Amino acid sequence: MLGRRRLEMKKTKVVILGGGFGGLYAALYLDKSLARRADVEVTLISRENFFLFTPMLHEVAAGDLYPGDIVNPIRRIIRHSRFVEADVQAIDLSARRVRCVGGVARLTLEFEFDHLLVALGSETNFFGLPGVREWAVTMKRLIDAALLRNRILALLEEASLHTDPAVRRRALTFVTAGGGFSGVETTGAIYDCVREAVRYYPELTEDLIRVTIIHPGEVLLPELGEELGRYAERKLCERKVEVLKGVRVASYDGTLITLANGQSIPAATLIWTAGVMASPAIAALPCRKERDRLVVNEFLAVPEYPGLWAVGDCAAVPNARTGKSHPTTAQHGLREAQVAARNIEAAILGRPLRPFTFTTLGQLATIGRRTGVAMIFGMKFSGFLAWLMWRTVYLAKLPRLSKKLRVMTGWTLDLLFARDLEQMLTLRDVEAIADMAAQIRARAPGTRTTIPLSAERLSNPGGLDAPAKPRAAQE
Ligand SMILES: Cc1cc2nc3c(=O)[nH]c(=O)nc-3n(C[C@H](O)[C@H](O)[C@H](O)COP(=O)(O)OP(=O)(O)OC[C@H]3O[C@@H](n4cnc5c(N)ncnc54)[C@H](O)[C@@H]3O)c2cc1C
User: Fold this and answer.
1) How far is the C-alpha of 95 from the C-alpha of 252, rounded, in Å?
2) Does residue 183 line the site of ligand 1, with CB under 6 A?
3) Which atom of ligand 1 lies at the shortest distance from residue 121's CA?
């Protein structure tokens, strides 16, 4: 009786979209406060059921770390909030609902909200360049890094089967578009990986390898300033990484990259880190945007829509000190998340809101072969010391002790042994998985069924776990 009355009580619904730095750290705050209350329900919705520590993604691409080392299961981190693995499709601000699709059958799920925190990050922008979306590989998700490592090994195997030097060269040409953090770190890391791996292929020689960065600006890592950018370039060039500046990719057909200046590069791999854009769910919102990002006020609220909040890469957060928006980095995203969560709590409990103020502590990047660049509290560091600082800082920031220990073990073993060369996934495996997925989908009940769900319903045994009924049967 008491239980039923509690269920019938009108709960304030807080929904968080995205399980990255912004979403997870907001959920963590609310998990310890509002989510424990009987009259509040906190739901976190994200595409994957894990939190990805992006600063270490390039280490997975290079095989220095295993994919599982740099992710944390969200369900192990939040205890009192609800987690739903689903893809956010649309946000209806007037109906105060979020529409998602989830599960094998791609069920449509709807969530009502009183407060909505949008932390969907960003998506890769291919700028409509011919063939780039279809053929380039990206570096945003865990699977991107795992597949890139797999691809490097697959291409080494492939190149070793051919005798034509042009075919071998094309297979062993890795081009990165974008000279920002992600592009430079990935290039440095995979360069080390390919050089080290090629020794185990007697048919191949180092001179067949070509690793190139294409950067539209004049200085790599522009966020770190000219001096460190030039240092990074010099170190990469010393290692025979080719740096093409002031030029852009125009198209790619899977074998040939064409540049805007007419030059072309035969390459089996183009790694695209050259642009981001808002998630389609945000692009469709009728709110004020700055470069695709939702414009929020100093309290991280979207002023036109009470109850709508945004943080992280998808939010343009004003910096009163500079008059510009705060940079889109993990250190900002997670701090914005904590302030937004506190403000949501304050709004619900009728307390005053707190403005977001934060000064960038520093930025660090690795450029391969135990070399890095860093700017900490305005001081510049480069070389081995910066690389060591990078490892120390990010190891400390990686959530959960078990993951820290795994990473530390990985790094220690890396000092003692050569990296592994196993190709975990072949094209045959991918075809088999695709066939299996098609069969599972065909058999899954309730494909494309619309089930208007509140988060409460999801927790009931008759919710998602039960076979979905067709819409008519529910009505
Ligand atoms: C390769 C790489 C390296 C980086 N290195 C650094 C670094 O060294 N230091 C640093 O400070 N920053 C770094 N960054 C930037 C940093 O990762 C971002 O600034 C930070 O992740 C932003 O947090 P966020 O929560 O806004 O977005 P994200 O962390 O990207 O999280 C977005 C979340 O939303 C989910 N999502 C997205 N769309 C949907 C949808 N439609 N439905 C459901 N869920 C969805 C995603 O799965 C993800 O969980 C790096 C980024 C990349 C890609």
Assistant:
1) 43
2) no
3) 27
Give the tokens for residue 427: 């094209």
Q: What are the distances in angstroms from CA 278 to CA 17, 118, 144?
A: 14, 11, 19
Angle CA(45)–CA(50)–CA(54) in degrees, nearest 5?
110
User: Of all protein residues, whose CA lies closest to atom 47 belonging to ligand 1?
Assistant: 47
Residue type, 472: A
d(CA 256, CA 164): 17
Angle between helical axes of 181-198 and 226-238 (0-180°, round to 10): 20
CB of 87 closer than 6 angstroms to any ligand 1 atom? yes
336-386: pLDDT as tens digits: 999 999 999 999 999 999 999 998 888 999 998 889 999 998 899 999 999
Beta bridge partners of 97: 92, 112
Residue 372 in contact with ligand 1 by CB distance below 6 A: no
CA 219 to chain centre: 24
Residue 363's contacts (CB-CB under 8 Å, 6 or more residues apart) are 181, 223, 224, 329, 374, 375
Domains, the chain: 2-47+86-122+278-349 (3.50.50.60), 132-275+362-425 (3.50.50.100)
| 235 strand-pairing partners | none
Q: Is the CB of 329 under 6 A from ligand 1?
A: yes
List pLDDT tens digits, range 120-161: 999 999 999 999 999 999 999 999 999 999 999 999 999 999
Regions in the chain scoring below 70 on pLDDT: 1-8, 445-475
Q: Whose CA is nearest to atom 48 of ligand 1?
A: 20
Q: How many CB atoms lie within 10 A of CB 386?
A: 24
Helical pair 142-161 and 181-198, crossing angle rounded to 10 deg: 30
Q: Which long-range contacts (CB under 8 A, 24 or more apart) does 384-392 make?
A: 389/364, 390/364, 390/365, 390/366
